[in-house]
């Protein structure tokens, strides 16, 4: 993620608008048409502004205990019609409950909890993660 960890600072990603624009450019450069956006942890700072502005351009959204969910109101989430799979590990007792509390306002959501998995549930329980993700993808139009 630009500007995080060991990546060089990028002026564009300082604001939510800049992060949304950055993600928009990435998707355009990749030529993606109605992708499913999978958003674990820190990537929420990019995915959530994009979802709220351009959710209609996504076939689906899969937040995995993303950061930044409290930055938006229930009303903002309620305006998004993107099919969403809220996915998290039941051992993620810090970020996952906060994300669920906020993301449950998305009208087209369902929830998948991975027993015995922590914050990086896709690493802790990869088979369960892929089963939940594939099940969601198969149900999309």
Write the layout of secondary structure elements.
Layout: H1 16-29, E1 36-40, H2 44-54, E2 60-64, H3 74-78, E3 84-89, H4 95-103, E4 109-114, H5 121-124, H6 126-139
Protein name: ABHEA protein
Keywords: Cytoplasm
Subcellular location: Cytoplasm
Description:
The chain has 141 residues and is of the alpha/beta class. The protein has a single domain (34-138), classed as Rossmann fold (3-Layer(aba) Sandwich), CATH 3.40.50. Helix content is 40%, strand content 16%. The protein contains six helices and four strands; from the N terminus they run αβαβαβαβαα. It has helices at 16-29, 44-54, 74-78, 95-103, 121-124, 126-139, and strands at 36-40, 60-64, 84-89, 109-114. A four-stranded parallel sheet has the order 1-2-3-4, with helices on both faces. Helix 2 links the parallel strand 1 and strand 2 (60-64). The longest helix has 14 residues, at 16-29. The chain is globular, with a radius of gyration of 14 Å. The N and C termini lie far apart (29 Å).
